[in-house]
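Lecture 7 notes. Example A: sequence first, then its structure tokens.
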Amino acid sequence: MNYMALMAMTASAETQDLVTLVPWTFIIQIINLFIQVFLIKKFLFKPINDILDKRRNLADKEIKEAREAKTEADSLKEQYESSLTNAHAEAAQIVSDAQKEAQNKADTLVRDAQEEAAGIKARAAADIEQEKKKAINEAKDEISSLAMDIAGKVVEKEINEADHKKLIEDFINKVGA
């Protein structure tokens, strides 16, 4: 047991030496810590912060460019949609105008054709009327000629009833021819 007691005492003394503060060692360790912090800050944090700043600036620039591109794309889209709407309206107007013009031309052609047909009909009616008058005049001339022939024959000879019938039949045959 003595040995164990001795070991416990030695371990206790060593533990006390490890836990004991030596002022000069403590001060040097504090100074060492400040030097390490200064060196880390100067040679490690500064370049890392510079890299982070560059990345942040680059990311901000890309975000700004993306926003500008989106704004420009939205503007172009609105212009395109407006142009498309205008083009549809213009196309509809052109089609409407073409339909109106075609309808007007068709109406004009129909009206001209009706007028021409009316003119042809009027000329035909006039021609028919003229031919009718001409035929009547010719018939009158023929009848008067026949009447003169009959009168001349009647005057030349005395007409009996049989001759009279014969003259009428001859007259009818000539008029029918």
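Example B, a different protein, same format:
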Amino acid sequence: MPRKTSIAVAAAVTAGLPLALAVPAWSHGYTTSPPSRSYLCGQHKVQNCGQVQWDPDGVEGPKGFPSSGPRDGTICAGADGRWGELDDQRGGTGWPATKVTSGQSFNVSWHFTAPHSTTSFRYFLTKDGWDSTKPLTRNSLDLTPVINKSYGGRQPSDRDVHSGTLPQRQGRHILLSVWDIADTGNAFYQCIDVDFG
């Protein structure tokens, strides 16, 4: 290769390297137990999921929920159109739901592919009487978290588990998980379908 061409190629690679290193990771994390909608799509246990089936751990959107963050109707997808199928209630009963019991302790397990410095993990549950045929809204949720785990900026371990006690509910509900990132303007959103019977 001629010397001038070699220098030009080396300069282009050197100039592009900082940009390549600055690109954020596309994969991050999801709940595995109970399984979230994005995890079920990634495992191909649910069909017609769109892009999330290839990136179930990338459901990220603006943080600040509930005072800001994703607008109503786009919460399960983190207000990102790429994951829009997660907001589809599929007739109110189309997502597989994990059977749970009011008043019992429960665990939520996460799997991380790219852990981040974390402010908190918070979990919100829909109210009795919410409309399960319509996309999730703040008005559908009890905005007092059923679990609130503060991390103070530390990174979670590969498979963190968060524990809490389920309040009194009947029928099908959504448990919304919000993973607040400490050093970016984003959070990760996971919708988990549960059935209290």
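Note on Example B: The beta strands are 29-33, 60-62, 98-99, 105-112, 118-126, 141-150, 161-165, 172-181, 186-195. The first strand starts at residue 29 and ends at 33.
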